[in-house]
Amino acid sequence: MKSMDLKEKFKELSKVVIDELEIRKIDGINSNIKTHNVYVPNLAKLCYKNGKVNYNLEKSELKKPIIDFESAVPKFYDDFCVKLPEFQELLKLLEDNYQLKKEQGEIVIRNLIIYIIYKINQNEKDSNKIVDKYIKKLNFITPYAKTKIFIDGIWITTEKLRINENLKIRRIKPSDFESHSPEILEQEFPPFGNFAYSILIYNIPLNFEFKSSFDLQKKILKKIRTLVNAFLLLRYGSIFSRKCIMPIFQPTHPEVIMQGVTGFGYSKLMVDFTYGQMVQTNPHLHIKTRHNYIISEKDIPNINEILEVFDKEEIRKILFPKPKKTNYIYIALNRYQNAFLNVENSESQISYAISCLEALLSMRGTDLKRTLSQRISLIFRILGFNPLSIGKIVREAYDVRSGYSHGDLVKYEDKERLAVQILQCARISLLIILQVDTLISKKEIIVQLHPNKNFKKKKVREIKGDRKNLFLKIIDYALLDKIIFKKLQGFFLENVKLFP
After folding, report:
1. Measured between alpha carbons, how far is 315 from 225 in angstroms, rounded to an integer?
2. Are residues 420 and 489 in the same domain?
3. pTM score of the predicted model
4. Are residues 135 and 146 in the same domain?
5. Sequence-separated (6 or more) residues with CB below 8 Å from residue 313
6. How far is CA 84 from the centre of its chain?
7. Which among 139, 170, 185 is the end of a domain?
C-alpha cells in the first residue's frame, strides 16, 4: 500500500474526530469543553498621528470555548477514538506496511488526535489541511515554528505587509489581547498612548540542528531576538519586543520514527505540537524615551537586506556570546538599547550614546574626545556624510556627557536634538562595525588595507590579533595616508550596507 493510502487513512480518521468534537461542543456532552469570559480592547479608533498611536482603551467582555487538554485528551482518546473502525484500520496499516509495533503506531495516532484538538481550539476545521500539516511535522519536511512577536515602536501604513515567505507584519487586533481580567488587559498597553504596537508573524524554519526540545526553544528565542535587533538598527527608533508567543515542541521517543513512516522522508527526531504555546513576556521593559518609525511596502527590500546580514552565523556569534566571553560590539549594543530604557533625561541618553561609541571606536588612553571624533568623522566621510558636522556633533555630545557624569549643570540649547543626532551616529556605527568586524581579520583584507608590507610575510595567526584594535589602527592610518583612505573607502563601499 502506497504512502498516499496512509494519507487518506489519516484524513478519514481526522474527519470523524473533527465531526465528533463539533457535536460535543454544540451539545455540551463533554464537560471538558467549556466557555470562559475574556476581555478584549476596542481598537476601532486606533490611529497614528505625529509619531504616536492614539487609542481609546474601552474593554469588551466575550465568552469563548476552551478545551481542558489535560482531562479532555485521555478521556476522548480512550472512550471514543480507539473504538473507531478508522482508528483500527490506520493502526493495522502502520503495523503491516510500515513495520511499527502496536504501541509505536498508537503514539503516532495519539499525537494526531492531540494535534487535531489543538487545531480545533484554534478554529481550524479543515481535515485535509490539518493532516497535511501533521504529516509535514511527522516527517520533518521543512517544519517551522510559527511565532507571534508583539513589537513596540513600529507602525505600518497598511493593515499588513508581507516581508518575505517566512515573515509578515500587521497591525494589532482585539483578539491579540484576550485576557481573563480587565486589569491584565490594561497592563498590555503602555501609559499615555505614546507607542506603536505591531505584530510580527515569524515562521522560523527548523532547518538547524538541536539536541533536545529545550535546546530547540533556546534557538527559536535567539532567532526572535536577532529579528528584533535587526529592526532596532534598521532605523532610529526604540524597537523592543514586549511579548512573544511560540509553540511548545516535544520530541517523541526516537524508536517511534522508522524510515518511510509515511513514505515522504526520514527523520531521526519527530517533533510535534503538544498542548499549547509558550508565552514569554518582558515585565520589566519600560521604555522611557520613545521614538517610533513607520514602514511601508517600499521598505521591504531594505528590511530583507538587513535580515540577510543579521542571519549570518558570524553575526549571531557576536550578538549571542558565550558566558564570560563577551565582545565589544555586544557591549555597545547593550548601551544603545539602554539609551531608550534606562534614561532620566536627554543628558542620560547622550551619555549612553557616547559610551556606545567608545565601546566601538576607543581604546584606553588620553585625549579620547579628539580621537573618537576623528575616527567617527572619517568613517562617516567614507559613507558620504559631512565629516565636519559629524565631528561637531560628537564633540558637543562628549562635552554634555562629561559635564553630566561629573554632576555639573549642563547648558546646551537643544539637548533633545543633540540626543537624536548622537544616537543616529551610534546606530549607524553599530551597523557598520557589525559588518566589518567579521571581515577585518582575514589575511587578504589586512594585506590590502595595512600599510606595513611586512604583514604579507607573517603567519595568519600573527596578523589577526585583536579585531577591534586592528580596525582602529587601520582607521588611524587612513587619517594620515590618502592611499590607505582610498583602500578603506573601497572596502566599505563593497562590504557595508546602511539600508537608508
Report:
1. 13
2. yes
3. 0.78
4. no
5. none
6. 43
7. 139
SS3 at position 266:
coil
Q: What's the domain range around 286? A: 142-311
Q: Where is the domain boundary, 311, 339, 360?
A: 311
- Which amino acid belongs to residue 68? D
Place of cell 541618553: 349
Residue 251 near residue 124, CB atoms below 8 Å: no
Are 428 and 322 part of one and the same domain? yes
Rg (CA), the chain: 28
The answer on 236 and 109 residing in a single domain is no
How does DSSP classify residue 150?
A: E
**Distance between CA 427 and CA 233 in Å, rounded?**
6
Asked if residue 449 is part of any domain, the answer here is: yes
Chain centroid offset of residue 418 CA? 30
**Looking at residue 286, what DSSP letter applies?**
-
When divided into structural domains, the chain yields a total of 3
Distance of CA 167 to the CA centre of its chain: 10
Per residue of the chain (500 residues), what is the pLDDT tens digit?
A: 345 577 888 889 989 988 888 777 655 444 455 556 777 777 777 776 665 666 666 667 666 655 555 556 677 888 889 999 999 999 988 888 877 778 778 878 887 887 787 777 777 778 888 888 777 666 544 467 788 999 988 989 899 999 999 999 998 888 888 777 777 777 776 655 556 679 999 988 776 666 666 777 788 888 999 999 999 999 999 999 988 888 766 544 333 333 333 332 223 333 333 335 667 777 667 777 888 899 999 999 999 999 999 988 889 889 988 877 889 999 999 999 999 987 888 889 999 999 999 999 998 766 688 999 999 999 999 989 999 999 999 999 999 998 888 777 677 778 889 999 999 999 999 999 999 888 876 766 766 776 665 555 454 454 455 788 888 888 998 998 898 899 899 989 888 888 86
* Same domain membership, residue 353 and residue 229: no
348 and 433 fall within a common domain: yes
Residues 108 and 150 occupy one common structural domain: no
Residue with cell 592610518: 477
Verify that 480 and 432 share a domain, yes or no.
yes
Sign of the Cα torsion 472, 478, 484, 486 reads positive
Rounded distance, CA 303 to CA 300, Å?
A: 5
* Residue at 346 is within a domain: yes
SS3 letters for 416-454? HHHHHHHHHHHHHHHHHHHHHHHHHCCHHHHHHHCCCHH
